[in-house]
Structures are given as structure tokens and as C-alpha cells.
């Protein structure tokens, strides 16, 4: 008997309910259609665009621990009523509706009600209950929906830091975190496997293009991972975060030596596919910020073009704080 799911067995629509705090029953409807160059997930909520945006983030993050990547269809999710802004227990219902309409969770003869939310959907973790035909089931991770193990241990997450210069007291080291989960079979386009919830479309495309190109430099880095990218501060301008992003990704995939402390990096590239590291603006304030906040064990990576323009004794000052410095023009085992 073939284990392949027939396309006729996958529903065009699915529904999941959630009980709101005020006693109302919220129904989340998911429909599926050919993607045709549209977004992978689209969400709508009556008069509450921010809740629709949150639902889209939840669904994309919850897909991170799925072992197969199929980007041929677009899933559209909608709410029939609007929950209170602070309510989040509808999140699990959205995840289940998304999985049901893609054939990853069975549709019951009677409506399924789900309650639960998570701050770590990308790890597959959730605290919630599912009320289906078999009764009420409490779950702590999404694998439990199918009787599987907790897959969070298979997610590799690494952070790197980059100087965020805004010209004043708000200057800070900001983190970027890359989480990767291995795909069972090669996925589609590399950029489709990379999610970065909370970023505007232009920034999202830049993140995807940077990672896809830098993985091309690895030779065997493509079509092997689901990826989630998160920023400590998702609102910023410029591309100087790119080197920190690429280094976090390489560390998460086991392509770099792990430092004793943090990776602190500033740099971008016009040719990540060749492993090239280019210079960025704001050299002086960024150097000052890094020196102030560097700690023992940190590894500082800067563009090679900065090497001859470092303040006298800069590298020695970093060493005195227990940090190390390298000015590079190419990525690789650093």
C-alpha cells in the first residue's frame, strides 16, 4: 500500500474553533488554492489588521518543525469574529486549521475546538488542549498531535550581534537569531524555506536573498533546511546586519567554530554567493559601541576595509576586555 497522500484526500477548506474569554465561539476557516506567486499564508480578521498579522506569524512559525516543505499552495485563513487584543488562545486553532487544510492533520466529523498559545512556535512548543472526537487532549508540543516526539531538540538556534547605530543614546548591540530545522527531503526554492516574521517585505526579501546566496557559497547548503530568522529589534535601516545574520546561520548549521562568547559582526555583501564581505557605513560610532560593550570571549568580525582605519590600540583594547578581533573580506571557517 502506498503511503503517498492523494491530492483528492486533501480538503479545499477546513475549520477549527476556539472559545474566547467572553464565551463567544471563534471559528477559523482555512482554504487552499494554487499559490501562483502569491504569499504562502494570507490572513484576514474583521477590523483588526494587527491580529491578522499575528495569525500569519503564528502559522508560519508553527510550520518550522514540519519535515517536508511544499510551497505549491497558498493557505488563506480568516476569523468570523474578532478576539480581544490581549487574547492568544486562538493561536492553536489557527495552526490546526492550517494543518488540516494541507492534509497534515485529520478533519473530524464533528468540529474541533482548540485552546492554546506559545512564545516558541518555531520550536513546535505549545501549551494547550484539543477537543476532538477522541476527547480532550492536552499537548505540550505539536508532535503530540500525531503521537510523535517533541521535535524542538532538532532545531538549532544561534544568535549573533551587530551594532545598531541611530546616532544617540539608543545605540546598542542588537541580536539576530537564526533557527534551522532539517528537511526530510529537498524543498523548493531556498528563499521560500526562510521565514522572518515581523519584518517588512523589503527587509524580508533582503534577509532571504542574503541567506540563500551565502548558502550557495557552501556548495551543499541549499534545500536542506527550514529557517526562521528573528531580530531583537525588527525595525532598522541599512544592511550592516548581514554579516551577523550569515554568521548566525553558519553557526546554526555547523559551518563555523563556536566562539566562547558572542559573535559581534558588522558587514554586508554584494556577492554573498562568492563569500565576499563588503564594508558598511558608520565605522567610528560602531567601533566605539563595540568596544564599550564587548565582553570576555566575544569574537568581533569587521570588514577588511576597516583594518587600516582602526583607531590606534583598538585591537589591544578589545584583547584587554577578553575579546578577539578579525577584519575579513570573505566568510569561511573563521
The helical percent reads: 10-25%
The oligomeric state of the chains shown is single chain
Provide the CATH architecture of the largest domain: 2-Layer Sandwich
N-to-C span: 50 Å
Low-confidence blocks of residues? 1-8
CATH class category name of the largest domain: Alpha Beta
Give me the strand/helix succession.
EEEHEHEEEEEEHEHEHEHE
How many DSSP E strands? Answer: 14
Write the layout of secondary structure elements.
Blueprint: E1 13-19, E2 25-34, E3 41-44, H1 49-62, E4 73-79, H2 91-101, E5 113-117, E6 125-132, E7 135-141, E8 156-164, E9 172-182, E10 194-195, H3 201-218, E11 225-231, H4 242-252, E12 263-265, H5 283-293, E13 299-303, H6 314-320, E14 324-328
Parallel strand pairs: 3-4, 10-11, 12-13, 13-14
Antiparallel strand pairs: 1-2, 2-4, 5-6, 6-7, 8-9, 9-11
Structural write-up:
The chain is an alpha/beta fold. The chain folds into 2 domains: 7-150, Ribosomal Protein S5, domain 2; 155-328, Ribosomal Protein S5, domain 2. It is built from 6 helices and 14 strands. It has helices at residues 49-62, 91-101, 201-218, 242-252, 283-293, 314-320, and strands at residues 13-19, 25-34, 41-44, 73-79, 113-117, 125-132, 135-141, 156-164, 172-182, 194-195, 225-231, 263-265, 299-303, 324-328. The strands form 4 sheets. It has a 4-stranded mixed beta sheet. It has a 4-stranded mixed beta sheet with strand order 8-9-11-10. The protein has a 3-stranded antiparallel beta sheet with strand order 5-6-7. Helix 3 links the parallel strand 10 (194-195) and strand 11 (225-231). Helix 1 (49-62) crosses helix 2 and helix 3 (201-218) packs across helix 4. The longest helix is centred in the middle third of the chain and has 18 residues, at 201-218. The radius of gyration is 22 Å and the shape is elongated. The N and C termini lie far apart (50 Å).
